[in-house]
Design a protein that fits this description.
The protein is mainly α. The chain is built from five helices and no strands. Helix 2 crosses helix 3.
């Protein structure tokens, strides 16, 4: 039996990093859902990698979690918001 994954690798990385930062900031899925204006079930699917986060959601998550969108999207390794020259 084959299972087809429709999520792209970057979407899975984004979900993992958002969940990692959510836990680090001691926020519940329910709080994150309320902040983004979606249901807790929707957040659960997104964090499990079953549905992608939208661009506006990633931006909002970065603000809430005190990190950069580049980190959440897997474009940089550090969760810090510092700009590297």
């Amino acid at each position: 039996m084959r299972i087809f994954i429709h999520m792209r690798y970057k979407d899975v990385v984004t979900a993992y990093r958002i969940d990692e930062q959510r836990k680090r900031n001691k926020l519940t899925q329910e709080y994150l859902a309320h902040y983004l204006g979606v249901t807790q079930a929707s957040i659960s699917r997104k964090l499990a990698g079953k549905a992608p986060f939208t661009s506006p959601e990633v931006k909002s998550c970065a603000l809430l979690l005190h990190t950069s969108t580049d980190y959440l999207l897997g474009l940089q390794e550090s969760a810090s918001r510092e700009v590297v020259a």
